[in-house]
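Researcher: I'm preparing a figure for a lab meeting and need a structural model of a single chain. I don't have an experimental structure, so a prediction will have to do for now. The sequence is pasted below. Please return the structure as tokens so I can convert it later.
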Amino acid sequence: MTKTILIATDYSLESLNILKKVLKEKDAAEDQNQYNILLTSGYDSGDSIRDLLFSTKTSVFNKIRPAEFCDALGIISNKYPHLVNKTICEIFTGSFQRTFNQYVKAENIEEAYYSPSIKSKGKGKFDLIPYIKKCRELKSHEITVEVREKLPERGRLAEIFVEV
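Model: Understood. Here is the structure written out token by token.
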């Protein structure tokens, strides 16, 4: 059976530790389901008509998602091929709770995972955690992720291999 889960991310390598922990727990529990994984960040597209007309999802991802994130996501997905059906990077551009609830319903999202230590800030990003907590149709899980300040691999692809 295929289920859809949402992981709140800021598209940093640290935020992929949430995905690593979730997949590690499901693997240890010998979960037989496969998962469509939505890595979602809030994004405020602004009020500029020019930006609204000419911005595409690709141009937004070029601004907020580093290339190392995509490489690391591929490595994690390849580590758990029996659990991952597909991974999709998304942005949520709404500003109302009912919009988020409709997004959850439309994408058929059953579970959501977030970490309070991962904060989406800068480059138009905003935090999805308040929306996740208020959504009644969603089973939300808080994941504790340790963000180490001094890590030699910080910001590089090797950071994904650090044990969480």
